[in-house]
Write a structure and sequence with these properties.
- The protein has helices at about 35, 50-75, 85-100, 110-130, 135-160, 165-190, 200-220, 220-234.
- By secondary structure, the chain is mainly alpha-helical.
Length: about 230
């Protein structure tokens, strides 16, 4: 892709002048816009030297050692298994989060996100049933975790499919934060008071929604964005 020699703005292949500084685009005689930017001619396949098996083994050892030590200390100097199950559950979740991207020969992002979400739910369930037990897992942990998982999955898949680009990604993230805040406040209100009364999450929406709209509009008008970059460089 050609660029303006004066202000550095990215130009279209058939542009006659710069959309920002109006400088005329001139190519050497006999050179077409396609020839000026031929692009990559071939792809070199580079094999990664990263060994997934060694990584899984190292992480397993690093998680198993403190888990075992915590259990031994809890049994030796405490009254049974009182606090060590929290440590074991936490280290187990960390192990899954560190290892899940490398469990398969091909990195399948939706499966990776789903496994991490299940690990988080498992950790929260363990915390809820360990003494002192509580009943907040189903009304709080499940809906909030599922909402967070769906939002992350949607944004990641749209980004990988090149549907979201740069400022569109920012707009989608702001919208996702607003939705997550609504789910969090609704779940907490239903758990504590039995009724949903949205308050602080509405403030988040009022703040994020205009920013998301501005980001989406700026992405549609790339000339404005390039102009902002030019003036910021000055």
């Amino acid at each position: 892709m050609p660029y303006c020699v004066i202000c550095g703005v990215e130009l279209k292949a058939d542009a006659k002048q710069c959309p920002l500084c109006c400088t005329e685009v001139a190519l050497p005689p006999g050179v077409s816009p396609q020839a000026a930017d031929p692009g990559p001619q071939r792809w070199d396949v580079v094999e990664s030297a990263f060994d997934k098996r060694i990584w899984i083994q190292v992480v397993s050892v690093l998680m198993a050692i403190p888990a075992l030590i915590s259990v031994v200390f809890n049994v030796a100097f405490g009254e049974g298994l009182t606090w060590s199950p929290y440590v074991v559950a936490s280290l187990g979740a960390v192990w899954v989060w560190c290892v899940s991207p490398f469990l398969y020969h091909r990195n399948v992002v939706p499966l990776w996100i789903a496994i991490d979400a299940l690990a988080l739910l498992g950790l929260l369930y363990a915390v809820s049933v360990l003494p002192p037990a509580s009943d907040w897992f189903m009304p709080l942990a499940v809906p909030i975790t599922l909402c967070l998982t769906v939002l992350v999955l949607v944004i990641v898949m749209l980004a990988r499919g090149r549907v979201l680009r740069k400022l569109h990604m920012m707009a989608a993230t702001l919208i996702a934060v607003s939705v997550l805040c609504i789910v969090i406040e609704a779940s907490v209100d239903r758990y504590l008071a039995g009724a949903v009364r949205l308050q602080w999450s509405l403030l988040v929406i009022v703040t994020c929604a205009p920013l998301a709209v501005v980001a989406a509009l700026l992405q549609r008008h790339r000339v404005v964005v390039e102009g902002m970059k030019f003036w910021l460089r000055m």
